[in-house]
Amino acid sequence: MYKSYSMELAGRTLTVDVGRVAKQANGAALMHYGDTTVLSTATASKEPREGIDFFPLSVEYEEKMYAVGKIPGGFNKREGKASEHAILTSRVIDRPMRPLFPKDYRNDVTLVNMVMSVDPECNPEIPAMLGSAIATCISDIPFDGPCATTQVGLIDGEFVINPSLAQKEISDLQLTVASTREKVIMIEAGANEVPEDKMIEAIYKAHEVNQEIIRFIDKIVADCGKEKHLYASCAVPEELFAAIREIVPPEEMEEAVFTDDKQTREENIREITARLQEKFADNEEWLNVLGEAVYQYQKKTVRKMILKDHKRPDGRKITEIRPLAAEVDLIPRVHGSAMFTRGQTQICTVTTLAPLSEAQRLDGLDEFETSKRYMHHYNFPSYSVGETKPSRGPGRREIGHGALAERALVPVLPSAEEFPYAIRTVSETFESNGSTSQASICASTMSLMAAGVPIRKPVAGISCGLVTGATDDDYIVLTDIQGLEDFFGDMDFKVAGTHEGITAIQMDIKIHGLTRPIVEEAIRRTKEAREYILTEVMEKCIAEPRNNVNKYAPKIIQIQIDPQKIGDVVGQRGKTINAIIERTGVQIDISDEGAVSICGVDQRGMDEAAHMIEMITTDFEAGQLFTGKVVSIKEFGAFVEFAPGKEGMVHISKIAKERIDKVEDVLSIGDEVKVICLGKDKMGRISFSMKDVPEEA
């Protein structure tokens, strides 16, 4: 039966229609926020997927171009693969939802959010995030919800809840927070150096709003929620754990996993697994879950040692950072390069500079952002973790890590007016053992400075982990987690920023939320670690951006012309601008505001192109001297081209001091001559004289 529920959310009406559409899905909610409409559905398979040791959750955020009255660009007029923004939104929905499903659930679950209309005042991400939670809560799929999500902006020092697209453009903060009834379960942020205390205040402002939404969701679930279905648990039998402990005592497992070398630890676990496989060779049921059992045994061992004994696998103190190293200019001929190493995590970032015309064009639902001049790409090859697999291009994780680093660095980049370049940084993962995304931020900062990009301040990133006990106040926060602590811990809290404040946050957790003391301690720890990395490592490697771009990078001259004269520079069908490009070998870009960027490697050619453009756009006055080429001869005089597409006439009487009968007696087409401007004739043409040119000119 069709039911509709509404609440006021940040000054706009949020309406949820249940039972109106998509009735064959396990759960469906047609979400309306203002005029933004999103269909959110949750479906689950009838049986668990065999042969897997993880929960198979898929989250999709589908952008339909009709939602903003557009037809997709290109030859194929259908929506194609998901945009980068859609992938990132899917990840933000996934992260708070995933921990709330049962850990032993192996049925395939798919959450689909289809954006059907967009109101610029109401960001479609909000109804999609809430719709996923509502659709799952009212379905029969096992789920320990609800959870709610709110976005927060910061404009003129004031918080704005669920800012519109226009407000996001001027906001100093773009924060997304998801919460359960008691705790924060997900944080994602980009910020213009927002101080830590202000960030914490914003997080808990969103948490308050989330509690209102959760009460609203509770009413919907109480009214039309389905009974949760039973499922076949894939938990490891306790009898198997007991048998494993008999063969591999806890002391032996501790010795196997507690080493600072990842390869040694993995080899120790392989040997233990092989021994157990041999012991259980006759028990096929146990063999099928042995890998998961060994994983769980490692996890319990590591968590116990950290929580009870404050002992980390590599012997570090709770607040200690792994050994750090930094260097620049390790790759020749590229525009900028730097490598940052933290323990067994190593990233090399290469910077490339190009004209603004190389900025990335965006085709999506956001009408305010049509291009971006800074692009950060992150690559994670299999050799970085000692594995082998074919390269199939970036996955969602790689796209997410690249976007996080990009978000962290955008606030410190110079404007296009200050530095008229498109900028691309590529972070190559040479070695991985935890927090490669944060190492990418450190390497990228140094690479940009090495390339001569005048960033305002250096940015560093670090990650904190968490191990929790039976109660909310029984926990340990770990500074600079390595891979093992990430896999077996409860949190990966990534924070990037400058000395002054935070530029990006991304928080992933595996438990049902964090208390405020944990959030505050994690933010404080990351600030301390960030200060150390900046001061003791990065700034000692390269203290400030270089004064000039690399010699192999293109050089750019920027001049401003009257926008009404853009057509004069371009010429009919591009004839004039193409002539300048052909003559000087440069690349020219002109904005609608009249900003002209001249890009090239030869300074002489760039200066010549700038001079030509200035001549084309100058309002000429009598007395100005030019050098030009004779391009046409008539009975009454000669036409001289003094700039591409710009000609003036020398009357026959102004060619020589003595009288001549024919123009051809003195001039030929192609002759280079000096002329002086006499102003404009009656027909509005520029009039030149050769005979009146001063002898010293």
TrEMBL record:
InterPro entries: ExoRNase_PH_dom1 (IPR001247), ExoRNase_PH_dom2 (IPR015847), ExoRNase_PH_dom2_sf (IPR036345), KH_dom (IPR004087), KH_dom_type_1 (IPR004088), KH_dom_type_1_sf (IPR036612), KIX_dom (IPR003101), NA-bd_OB-fold (IPR012340). Residues 623-691 form the S1 motif domain. The keyword DNA repair does not apply. It comes from the Bacteria. Keywords: Cytoplasm, Magnesium, Metal-binding, Nucleotidyltransferase, RNA-binding, Transferase. Pfam families: KH_1 (PF00013), PNPase (PF03726), RNase_PH (PF01138), RNase_PH_C (PF03725), S1 (PF00575). It catalyses: RNA(n+1) + phosphate = RNA(n) + a ribonucleoside 5'-diphosphate. It is found in: Cytoplasm. Gene3D superfamilies: GHMP Kinase, N-terminal domain, K Homology domain, type 1, Nucleic acid-binding proteins. SUPFAM superfamilies: Eukaryotic type KH-domain (KH-domain type I), Nucleic acid-binding proteins, Ribonuclease PH domain 2-like, Ribosomal protein S5 domain 2-like. Mg(2+) binds at D486, D492. Residues 223-302 form the KIX domain. Involved in mRNA degradation. Catalyzes the phosphorolysis of single-stranded polyribonucleotides processively in the 3'- to 5'-direction. This is Polyribonucleotide nucleotidyltransferase. It comes from Blautia caecimuris.
